[in-house]
Amino acid sequence: MDLIGPLGKPFHVSGQYKRIAVVGGGIGIFPLLYLLKEMKESDKSAFLGFRSSDYVVMTDEFEAASDRLSISTDDGSVGYKGIITDLLDKDIAERGFDIIYTCGPMPMIRKVKDMAQKAGIKCQVSLEQRMGCGIGACLVCACKTGKPDNWEYSHVCKDGPVFWSDEVILDD
Ligand code: FES
After folding, report:
1. Span from the CA of 156 to the centroid of ligand 1 (angstroms)
2. Cβ(33) to ligand 1 under 6 A?
3. Less packed terminus of the chain by CB within 10 Å, N or C?
4. Is the minimum distance from the CB of 83 to ligand 1 under 6 angstroms?
5. Are residues 36 and 53 in the same domain?
6. Mind telling me which residue stretches traverse the membrane in this protein (predicted)?
């Protein structure tokens, strides 16, 4: 097997963020575990959403890496029944965060982006996309960046996969 890396741009890790939240859905949870481990000095809240108990993984690791862990499943077989952003919404109001990092399904990312924007909280999104080359040559992984009336194509592989939520356009 041939491997190249590291590629692309990572999450912004900084000691200036005292209270952080990570919001992950499905396979999008995995990069967030390593991010939590990097943010050593921060107060860390983790929010993980899954389809059902059959898909719930690595909760012990997230529990150890965070100060509090919230879990939801669509069918209520583990944790809160419903979508994970319901729990995030409650904590934004009660606790407040300096930054929210998110990775997972696009509807969840869109919702987290909107919630962060409304609350005036910084937000980084890590996008999932099909990739061919990983180095910006094949254009398989295009996404829109800029403002809705003045945007351009960027590469998730090279310019991301992590973007500031206010620089990326997440079309329906
Ligand atoms: S994967 Fe080829 S340009 Fe991004």
Report:
1. 7
2. no
3. N
4. no
5. yes
6. 20-36
